[in-house]
Structure formats: structure tokens, C-alpha cells
Amino acid sequence: MSGFVVCRKCGTRIKAGRGxxxxxxxxxxxxxxxxxxxxxxxxxxxxxTQVAVWAGATFAAMLLGFMIWQTWPTRGDDVAQPADPAIxxxxxxxAPAPEPAASDAPxxxxxxxxxxxxxxxxxxxxAAAADSNLEATRADYEQKLGADPKDPVLLNKLGEVLVRxxxxxxxxxxxxxxxxxxxxxxxxxxxxxxxAGELGQTDRSIDQFREAVRLRPQDYDALNGxxxxxxxxxxxxxxxxxxxxxxxxNSAGPEAVLGLATSLEKVGRIDEAVEVFHEYLEIxxxxxxIARVKAHLAxxxxxxxxxx
Length: 308
Fold this sequence. Notes:
It contains 13 helices and two strands; from the N terminus they run E-E-H-H-H-H-H-H-H-H-H-H-H-H-H. By secondary structure, the protein is mostly helical. The longest helix is centred in the middle third of the chain and has 28 residues, at 120-147. The model is unreliable at 73-79 and 89-121 (pLDDT under 50).
């Protein structure tokens, strides 16, 4: 027996007569067995034709990969953010001319009633368009949650839309599920705490704000929200501590300053309250709130003068 055989596995050329490949130990073919020619030879393809076919196949694969990448579904903004307090302030659904929301930190002076609009038709049309857009957004989130019901980001966004539609009770359920799925995300807890407060669930609101503060101790929204919830519960001494922390976290935040002044007044620390009310007037941006606080300061000054 003479000649050589080629190992089918590693391609090593081995002298005929051996049973196994010396390199990979695979059984060697019978030297008398005919070896099928390469496909290119069977098809009669020239070297240039082979190169052209290979290049065409490579381009097609790259084009297919690019198309898949372009059409692959992507999730939107996944960075959780707490809903704006103005959004969480529940409004009556489909109201053409909604009443302005009350302040989170009430002062003694009452807010004047809003004047009726001189052009009700454009306002009603605008409100109807807004309602339509919100309903479309809500339906879109509901559909996406049907495919992925355990997505906390979608649940949180749906909750925010429901709040804007005035469906606060439903929003609370979505926020609660988002918290259960991702308990370490403080933004979901802040949103749940706010709607719990709107629903009169003050203890639940306090608990959620406390958890948010534990997870993010320097978060202004969590600290200010906790202060407001404690204030609403009548625990003004504890509220003062939280408002003070919130001011340190964001010295330009007017809500915490107004909340601190209000609680200081409630516990009888009038001189400190007056000082903080004046600090609020320096950073406040709402003309209506500035007018209210100035009127309240005038009442405080009159009462103090009468006491003296």
C-alpha cells in the first residue's frame, strides 16, 4: 500500500496505511475511496466567479444585519423620574376650565377665585384635544404592558398619564406595582406617595416618602414631600426637620421654605416663621403666592402688635 491520505477533520496529510490521524486521532479514510471534488469544481466555477459569489453573500449578510438593527424595537426613556407635583394634583376629568390646584403648603390667607374665561369655545376645544391625546397615550402604554406586564418603567409612565386624566385611584395601583417590581427605585415611591396623599392615605404617603428618603437621603422631592405629608398629619415638629433637610439639599426650592415657615408658625415659633416667610418672598416665582404670603405676613404683624 503506498501514497497518502488526507484527514477529513484536520486536513493533515498522512501516509497511507495508518488507521488514525497522527494529529487529531480521527479515523483515516480508505486510500482506495474516491474523494468528492469541491463544490466549486463540481459546478465548474472559476476562481473569479467564486470570489464574486463570496462577496455577494457577504454583502447580503451585512445588509440583512443592518435592516434588523434599524427595525429592532427600542424602549424609550428608561430613566425613572418622579412625576411633577403639578401633574399629580388630581383634576376633574374632561373639565373645559379646570380650577387651579391648591398649594401643598397652605397659608392662612385664601386664594381668590379665578375669573371666568372670555373665550370658552377655544378652551373647550383645547381641553378636548388634550383629553384625546392622553387617551391615545394611555391606550398605547396599556398595549405595551399587555406584551410586557412586568415592566416597571411602563407602569410608572402609565400611572403618570392616569393622574393627568384625573384617574388617581387607578394611577396608585400602577405606581404600587412598579414599586413592587423595582423597590429600590425612589422615583416610583415618590409618585406612589403623592397619589396616596391625594387619596387621603396620609400614613401610606408618609411611609413611601420615608422609604424614598432612605434610598436617596439628599433627594429634595422626597424630603419636601415627606415634610408636607407630616404637616398634613399634624406632625409639624417632625415636618420642620424634613423641610430643613430639603432646604440644605436645594436652597433655591421655594416649596420647602414655604412649608418650613408654615410649620414653624403652627408650633408657635412666630418670629422664626416670619423670617422664613420673608426668605420665601425672595425666591418665590408665583405672583399669586407672593401676594398671599404678603397678606398673611400683614396679618401676623397685626396680631403680634396687638399681643404686645
